[in-house]
Amino acid sequence: MPKEIKLLTGNSNKSLAEEVAEYLRISLSDTWCKRFSDGETHIKINENVRGHDTFVLQSTSTPVNDNMMELLLIIDALKRASAGRITAVIPYYGYARQDRKAEPRVPISSKLMADLIEVAGANRVLTIDLHAGQIQGFFNIPVDHLYATPVLLDYVMNNYSNGDIVVVSPDAGGVERARAFANRLPKSTIAIIDKRREVANVCTVMNVIGDVRGKDTLILDDMIDTAGTTVQAAEVLKKNGARRVYAACTHAVLSGPAVERINNSVLEEIIVTNTIPLGDKIATCPKIRVLSVAYLLGESIERIHEETSISSLFV
Q1: Which position among 14, 44, 111, 195 bears the catalytic label?
Q2: Per residue in 58-78, pLDDT tens?
Q3: How far is CA 132 from CA 100, 103, 137, 138, 151, in A?
């Protein structure tokens, strides 16, 4: 087994990295991530990592390309410093929506990102709620795919009608996620939003499949980007007689007009995790409730280091 754990991070999500370090009862390794005057990324690790079990926590969220480059360069620096094992801990995996050729002459960007992470020198990947589960297969190294479900479930159970709620999938592709979530809540059922997406980030909500009249509802998704889908789904649920409408997701991308849309929507509350730092968006949107995934990541890192089961976290 490699030596003790070293946890490093770039600039993408330092607050989460600090929480994970606190859970592991270690200090973050001294890592220097700066920019040269021409915009190039400059990385330096200021302590010995030779033979250590190293974990690089970096979400590839906005600014996506800068954060991805920091991740790659930290991994490369660790490899050249003879780290024992290098695990890329990516709470939010950017480019995940570009996972296939949906039209002619376009790249499969999430596959390219996987190749870059491997070539840089990562021996393993730890991530949370990939947009498409098959992205695990884009890697030729082990991928531990975590789910934020336990974190979200705990909050819903303690705050929303003791779990008596309709879990709503915003599209047909999310039905399995909604069903798995509902199965762990007492007396919960599911509903599905039938929608048509005409262009990227713009969709038309058509209908609700399932009974929501007089009930509290929870729209469940892996991520919320511009919030157009979520807000339109909430309006349709209200029109179909839902008593209250909540939303939950793992990754709060919240780009463009998302915060304004949420503030002006019929949503009572939106539950998200801290896989992506929200900064001042929390102050400008009182409907957002942020839950921490530090325990999930910290416990998983410890189990990877000790070579014990991660899947038992979700039983």
Answers
A1: 195
A2: 999 999 999 999 999 999 999
A3: 10, 18, 10, 11, 20
